[in-house]
Design a protein that fits this description.
The structure holds two protein chains of two kinds.
Chain A: H1 2-25, H2 28-37, H3 39-69, H4 74-97, H5 104-129, H6 138-169, H7 174-203, H8 211-240, H9 248-277, H10 284-289, E1 293-294, E2 299-300, E3 305-307, E4 313-315, H11 316-323, H12 338-355, H13 363-368, H14 376-390, H15 442-449, H16 453-487, H17 491-522, H18 528-531, H19 542-566
Helix pairs in contact in A: 1-2, 1-3, 3-5, 4-5, 5-6, 5-7, 6-7, 7-8, 8-9, 9-11, 12-14, 14-17, 16-17, 16-19, 17-19
Chain B: H1 2-11, H2 14-28, E1 34-40, E2 43-52, E3 63-69, E4 80-83, H3 126-138, H4 148-156, H5 158-173
Helix pairs in contact in B: 4-5
EC number (chain B): 2.3.2.23
Keywords (chain B): ATP-binding, Nucleotide-binding, Transferase, Ubl conjugation pathway
Protein name (chain B): Ubiquitin-conjugating enzyme E2 G2
């Protein structure tokens, strides 16, 4: 309404000026001469002409907008106003640097830039809207296609123009315009890629899983391009003029977006790799046990679903797109990146720990209560500690997991160690520890981590080795006791022996439960089952305790191996 | 109409399908005191909701209209919610935008106090959002302070706050104060 009013008034004024001239001179040529010669009417006329020009541009803009976009949605209009505000402020800041170049032509160029920019924003909004609108007509494709090619051409022309004029006349405000159009060119590129991706997505019947991946990469590449452009521009500006304050806000946002895109890609790749390699496909029974609806898309899961370590099941495709944003379980927010980032990452950190004395028995059940699984670090540390601290012959352990050096520990071999110096101070029995883990390569360690059959087998094997160690310790204990009995050693000296055995076997037992818990959580069983296991008591008589522990151990191993085979 | 919907179902992305599922769910078993649905069936990404003020609070009896705007990647990103009537509440901005943690994606924390456990995740739904808003009406979180004046008044001058709330309730019902 207001625009129409201004238009009418300015048209009336123009008509009045021209009419006045014509009325005075009566002929066309003299009246033109009069208008251009007479000073007051000149000034007035040109002011009116400027307003006219602006209104003309505005009308062309509205007209083009109608052609290419039809009616704007409220959200689009809001974005437009918001972005236009920033653009105008920043360009005004830019003018302070180039105040000497200020001229009507400059204003015309600036207006043109603003309008082209507004078309870019609108095109971006429109293409984003493609994802939401259910039906895309051919008119939409025609509009977006022609608009994008038009914008592309306009940007190229303007860059060419800026380049030529900079070459011809040296650095001027054209530098800023050229740079702005170069940025706009990347925007057009970005929109075009998005448009193509959305179109492909719309053509196919099923949702296209890889589209977000492509979108992420597009963002990364365009972000990189923009960052390079901004940095170059700022460097050029600093060298020729002064610090371009007006470029800082967009530069900051561009860099932040780039960093975010980079971070997103790295994290989502990691999460998706985890998903593909570590987490098992949900079995039909598991699907039937749960209510069979993917909580992300609220649709039934018939195929292609994955189970996370926390037992929650989702569509593989839904999980993938969620992992592109967050690397947590949607239901319980378990950080799914932690287990894998920890295994390679914390191993070196745990090496000093391994050198410390063996953890107290009381600590191990405490570690148990951490719940939630992923106790690999403490588990490794516990496990390694006795070997590293007490056992010099740990070095002859082969670094290979599947080939354990267990020949000396077979029941026949144990007595060889047993009575070296029967009357001497009763040392705690020192069995051969499991393979030294520091010598394992990254892959072998990782192989022990996974849920695949092979990994589970490796774990069971290691557990069996632990059991063997404990049996050996028992056997040695018996040996010591018989030796002590035959040598008639007074009772008090044998008491420390027994308590220390109880202690060592106890340090082992919590270890086992930790192992079991880790295994069970990574195998997807509820961690709660292990928390209520009875802990062996130290106060009982030696034999009794041993038998009880033996039974407990058997039960656990049995449970564990049944889990392993179920897997 | 049926063929149209079928067509939409085939063509639409997962966001649209999920929104349709939620709409169906909400119309089949509507939670008490909440009505919500798309403003028009052409565009499922803009919803309108009517929330009745929880009983036993100063907002009791009011019917508050709000609109929900869903992002194209819903449910991976949270929707935005804005009351379209005048509101005076510590967790509602002056322009009606609702500020509760369930509507914020982990990572952005406008007020710097929310734990990520109560943030948006695809498990949430329109129904849960609206129920959270109802409980927010009943128990404002005066630490968040989207509307500082309201938060201050809620803390220090409860009767005045209740008086304003009652006035708003009358306004939404079209009763002269």
């Amino acid at each position: 309404m207001r625009a129409a009013g201004i238009t009418l008034i300015s048209i009336a004024l123009t008509c009045a000026v021209i009419g006045n001239a014509y009325y005075q001179k009566k002929q066309f040529y003299p009246s033109v001469v009069y208008i251009t010669k007479s000073n007051p009417s000149m000034a007035f006329f040109f002011q009116v002409i400027y307003i006219q020009g602006l209104i003309l541009v505005f009308m062309i803009n509205t007209f083009l907008r109608k052609i290419f976009f039809g009616n704007l949605r409220a959200a689009e209009l809001e974005h437009l106003v918001e972005k236009a505000w920033y653009a105008v402020t920043e360009t005004c800041l830019a003018f302070t640097v180039f105040r000497d170049d200020f001229s009507p032509k400059f204003i015309a160029l600036f207006t043109l830039l603003l309008f082209l920019k507004s078309f870019h924003w609108l095109a971006e909004d429109r293409v984003d809207y493609m994802e939401r609108s259910p039906v895309i007509t051919w008119l939409f494709h025609l509009r977006v296609g022609s608009l994008l090619s038009l914008l592309f051409g306009a940007n190229l022309t303007m860059i060419q123009y800026a380049y030529d004029s900079t070459l011809a006349k040296g650095a001027s405000v054209q530098l800023v315009f050229g740079f702005e159009y170069a940025i706009l060119l990347t925007v057009v590129l970005n929109i075009t890629i998005k448009y193509v991706l959305h179109t492909i997505d719309l053509q196919s019947e099923n949702p296209w899983d890889n589209k977000p991946v492509f979108l992420l990469y597009t963002e990364l590449i365009i972000g990189l391009l923009k960052v390079i452009l901004y940095v170059t521009f700022v460097m050029i500006m600093v060298r020729i003029y002064t610090l371009p304050l007006f470029a800082f806000r967009p530069m900051y946002y561009t860099m932040r977006n780039f960093k975010k895109a980079f971070h997103d890609i790295v994290m989502s790749r990691r999460a998706i790799r985890n998903m593909n390699t570590l987490y098992p496909d949900a079995t039909p029974e598991e699907l039937a046990a749960a209510d069979n609806v993917c909580i992300i898309c609220r649709e039934e899961m018939v195929s292609a679903s994955k189970k996370l370590p926390c037992n929650h099941i989702f569509h593989t495709a839904c999980l993938r797109s969620w992992f592109q944003r967050q690397q947590t379980c949607p239901t319980c927010r378990l950080n799914i990146l932690r287990p894998t980032t920890n295994t390679p990452g914390t191993r070196p950190q745990n090496q000093p720990e391994a050198g410390q004395p063996a953890p107290q028995p009381a600590q191990a059940p405490g570690a148990n209560q951490h719940g939630q699984g992923f106790q690999i670090p403490s588990f490794w540390a516990n496990w390694q500690a006795p070997g590293a601290a007490q056992q010099p012959q740990g070095q002859n352990n082969a670094p290979n997991v599947p080939l354990p050096p267990f020949q000396p520990l077979t029941p026949g071999g144990v007595p060889l160690f047993a009575p070296p110096f029967p009357p001497m101070v009763p040392l705690p029995p020192v069995p051969t520890p499991p393979p030294n883990l520091t010598t394992l390569s990254e892959e072998e360690l990782r192989a022990m981590e996974g849920n695949m059959r092979q990994a589970v087998e490796a774990r069971i094997e290691t557990l069996q080795r632990v059991q063997l160690l404990l049996d050996a310790a028992n056997a040695m204990m018996n040996q010591y006791q018989t030796a002590a009995a035959t040598a008639n050693i007074p009772v008090p000296t044998s008491i420390p022996t027994t308590t220390s055995t109880a202690e060592t076997s106890q340090t082992k037992v919590p270890d086992l439960s930790v192992i079991k818990e880790t295994a069970s959580t990574s195998a997807g069983e509820s961690p709660a089952s292990s928390s209520n296991e009875p802990t062996p008591s130290t106060s009982r008589a030696d034999n009794e305790t041993r038998d009880e522990q033996e039974m407990l151990r058997r039960r656990r191993l049995q449970k564990f191996s049944s889990q392993g085979t179920a897997e | 109409m049926i063929t149209d919907n079928l067509y939409v179902n085939i063509m639409a992305g997962s966001a649209l399908r999920r929104l349709m599922a939620e709409y169906k769910q909400l119309t089949l078993n509507p939670p008490e005191g909440i009505i919500a649905g798309p403003i028009n069936e052409e565009n499922f990404f803009e919803w309108e909701a009517l929330i009745t003020g929880p009983e036993g609070t100063c907002f009791e009896g009011g019917v508050f209209p709000a609109k929900l705007i869903f992002p194209p990647d819903y449910p991976l990103s949270p929707p935005k919610m804005q009351f379209t009537c005048e509101m005076f509440h510590p967790n509602i901005y002056a322009d009606g935008r609702v500020c509760i943690s369930i509507l914020h994606a982990p990572g952005d924390d406008p007020m710097g106090y929310e734990s990520s456990a109560e943030r948006w995740s695809p498990v949430q739904s329109v129904e849960k959002i609206l129920l959270s808003v109802v409980s927010m009406l009943a128990e404002p979180n005066d630490e968040s302070g989207a509307n500082v004046d309201a938060a201050k008044m809620w803390r220090e001058d409860r009767p005045e706050f209740e008086r304003i709330a009652q006035k708003l309730v009358r306004k939404t019902l079209g009763i002269p104060c």
